[in-house]
Amino acid sequence: MNLRKCGALSAMLLAILLTLPQTADANDLVRIGSFKGISDAGIFVAKEKGYFAEQGIDIDIEVVGSASDVTTAFASGKLDVAGGSPSVGIYNAIKQGLPIEIVADSGNTSPGFGYSAFMVRKALADKIKEPADLRGHTLAATGYNAGASNEVTVHHLLSSGGVKESELKIISLSFPDVVTSLGTGAIDVGILIEPLVTVAVEQNVAVVWRRGDAVYPSQQYANLMYGPSLTRRPQVAERFMVAYLKGVRFYNDVLRGKAPKAELVAILTKNTAAKNTALYDKMVFPGLNPNGTLNVAGMAKDMQWFVDAKRMKEPIDLSKVVNTTYVDAALKKIGKYE
Q: Which of 102, 239, 244, 325 has the greatest number of beta carbons closer than 10 A?
C-alpha cells in the first residue's frame, strides 16, 4: 500500500514538473575590453544585431585606455577579449609569459581605408608639401617612443623623403591633444584617427596631408586578441569568432552599399565616442577584413623596426602568437566573404 502511494505521488510530482516552464541554460559570458573606437565596429554590430546571442554568448564591454590596461586585465582574468594595436607593450607581455593570442584583424589601412592621417596645421598647409618639408618642424604621434604602431607609420613617411628623426622634433600626445595643439600652433603636424581627422578639418585647425593607406598601405593597425581566460574555453572562443565576423561582414556590406548605412551609424553612435551622425558621411572608415585575415608579414616587419629602433630587445616568434584556428573554424561555419 505504501509503495502504491509513493508511486502515485512520484507520478503526480513528475506531471507537475513537466508543466512548469523550463529554464534555458545560461549563456557563456565573455568580457571585452574596448577603446570605444570605430575599429571595434565588428563587436558593436554583433552585440546590437544579436549575433552574440545567437551563439549563446552574453558580453560585458569594459572601456580600456591603454595596452597596459589590456595586459593587466588579461593577466588577472578580468578580460577575455580585447582589440588593440600590435605594439611593444603587447609583445613584451607575451614574451614575459602572458599567453595572449592574436586571433583576427580589427583595423587596417588597406587601400581606401586610410582612417589614420597626418594632419598639417592650417597656417602651414602651403609650406609642408613633401616629407622633406618636415625638417625643423614639430610632429606629434600618440605613443611615440613607446613602441606604438604610429611610430612605424612615421618611419614610413620620413624614409620616403630621406628624412631622419633627428631632423625634426617628434613628441607624443594623445589624439585629442593633437587636435588642440594643431589649433594653438604648438605642433605643426600630427597623426589623428577618424573621426578626429574630420573634426580637425571641420574646426578649420588642420588639413589632411597624407592618409595612412597612402603612407603605409595595409598596415595592421589593430588586432583582436584572446586572453587565457577565453583560450581555455575553445568552443566559446570559436562561437565568439563566428559572431564577430558576422558583425564585421555587416559593416563591410554597409560600406559596399549592400546594407543600410543608417543602421550602422546608429550602432556606432550608441557604442563609440563619435556621437555626431553628420561626421559619418564625411569620415574615412577603418579597414576590417571580413574574413578576419591578419597581415602577419607586415606585423613581423613592424616588430623588426621596433627592435632596430631599440623599442624592444628582440623579436618574438609570431607563429607562436598568432592563432588562426578560431577564424578557420568560424569560416567553416559561415563560409568566406567574397
A: 244
